[in-house]
Amino acid sequence: MAEVKHQVHHKSENELVIERAKDFWTKYGKITSIIAAAIIILGGGYLAYKYMVVQPKQQKAEEAMWRAQDYFAQDSLDKALKGDGQSAGFEKIATQYKGTDAGELASFYVGVIALKQGDNNKAIKFLKAFSTDAHQIQARAYKLLGDAYANAGKNADALSSYKKAGNEFEKDKTSSSDYLMMAAYFADKVMNDKKQAEELYKDIKQKYPDTQAGADADKYLAQLGVYNVDEK
Prior knowledge:
Elements: H1 13-73, H2 77-82, H3 90-96, H4 101-116, H5 120-129, H6 135-151, H7 155-168, H8 173-190, H9 194-207, H10 212-223
């Protein structure tokens, strides 16, 4: 009787990959489907939220802003802040459209108006809450927040805000040096913190020697008995 020879079938790499995939799917197919569905649902939910909630809200906020901005430009601050009975003012826009770019900008306007009207606590509340990626505007907001804190007698907070203003956007050398000068002068003349004032004057001199603030720093350092910015 002839011997029957069994040929051994060597599986190709592709076949092995397919088998491994089948084993994986058998073990984990259900949970994988759940995760994939969750990703799709979350992704779709985000897009729906963005295009059906956020964008329409932003558009409404922008439409509400123009009238308030017009009153602000005319120096009709009460109407800009509170509205005119038909159009909303900045205060309502800031609250109603919180989280939108227009709502953030409205918060800035509320802070500016409140500061002009002497309501320092309101100015602090809204300027502190304000945030933007536009560094020059953010620096300005920190400066105004410093003014509000200073008016309210909160000197440590005022100094901190002036320093933030000076360090927010150093590419704007004129504004940054001016804000740091406010911080230095405030530390020097209001808080009588000569050590911190000296550090700030030196910082201005080293970073912004060609600005007006850099030139003024020499004068104030001399008043403190410092004639070399490299002195420790």
